[in-house]
Amino acid sequence: MKQYRIHMDDAVMVLAGKDKGKVGKILKILRKKDRALVERVNMGIRHVKPNPQQSQPGGRIEKEMPLHISNLALVCPACTKPTRVGYRYLEETGADGKKIRKRVRFCKKCNEILAQGGKKK
Ligand SMILES: [Zn+2]
């Protein structure tokens, strides 16, 4: 499976387009399209039909539109700057006493290890 440097729930900054410079949280990653939805960023109007089953009234609703992943930069929670993500390996000892090599992301600006994010569903 493809691995992006950006995961669900990460804070990101938009690098291009009409919302350049805005910061938001990743709501969803659209793997097939290499795009992501960012909270309150790149809003567009979507026309929806009324759907009584979901008690949706229909009409025009504002909705996040997908942005290409390459136009997003992770905002590091430690130094709060948009940064590049690097990978490094940590060695951990598992419950059974075996060593596990674990890949973690880190901030290339301050070297802080980043939360892995991406709730597994
Ligand atoms: Zn940092």
What would you note in describing this structure?
A hairpin with an 8-residue loop joins strand 1 (11-14) and strand 2 (23-30). The chain is built from no helices and ten strands. The radius of gyration is 18 Å and the shape is globular. The chain has one domain (11-50, 59-107): SH3 type barrels (Roll), CATH 2.30.30.30. The mean pLDDT is 90. Helices cover 0% and strands 45% of the residues. The chain has strands spanning 11-14, 23-30, 35-38, 43-48, 59-64, 67-68, 72-75, 82-83, 85-93, 99-107. It has 121 residues and is an all-beta fold.
Throw out a few tags for this protein.
mainly beta, binds zinc ion, SH3 type barrels, 45% strand, six-stranded antiparallel beta sheet, 121 residues, single chain, 10 strands, globular
